[in-house]
Amino acid sequence: MAADDAPDPLWIAVLGAGFLLALAGLGLFAFLGLDRTGKVSLTRARLGLALFAIGAACWTLAAYQA
Q1: 58, exposed or middle or buried, with CB in 10 Å at 0-12, 13-18, 19+?
Q2: Contact, 27 vs 55, CB < 8 A?
Q3: How many whole angstroms separate alpha carbon 66 and alpha carbon 37?
Q4: Whole-number pLDDT of residue 4
Q5: Tens digit of each residue's pLDDT (9 = 90 or more) over 45-65
Q6: Residue 5 binned pLDDT confidence (cut-offs 50, 70, 90)
Q7: Has residue 13 been placed in a domain?
Q8: How far is CA 1 from CA 7, 25, 40, 51, 54, in A?
Q9: CA 42, CA 64: separation in Å to the nearest integer?
Q10: Who contacts 66 (Cβ-Cβ below 8 Å, separation ≥6)?
Q11: pLDDT digits over 9-49, tens only?
């Protein structure tokens, strides 16, 4: 009864930030990395892909720790 099983607020914040970073990365990829015909430009999509990868890593780590 005395055990505190609540997740650490820091990891909850990292979870939310990771989700927002991943979402922003996907948005940037869609707006910058794709042209009107649907072709992918990897040089323009790098920032979006990097944000998505960082966000997904933060989200995964926080979900594991929280």
Answers
A1: buried
A2: no
A3: 42
A4: 79
A5: 999 999 999 999 999 999 998
A6: confident
A7: yes
A8: 16, 42, 55, 41, 38
A9: 31
A10: 7, 8, 11, 12, 15
A11: 999 999 999 999 999 999 999 999 988 898 999 999 999 99
Residue type present at position 11: W
Please compute, for residue 1, the number of CA atoms within 13 A of its CA located in the half-sphere on the CB side.
Answer: 0
Instruction: Tell me how far apart the alpha carbons of residues 56 and 59 are, in angstroms, rounded to a whole number.
Output: 5
- Provide the number of structural domains found in the chain: 1
Q: State how far the Cα of 11 lies from the Cα of 66, in Å rounded to an integer.
A: 6
Q: Is residue 3 included in any domain, yes or no?
A: no
Q: Which residue segment(s) compose the domain that 33 sits in?
A: 9-65
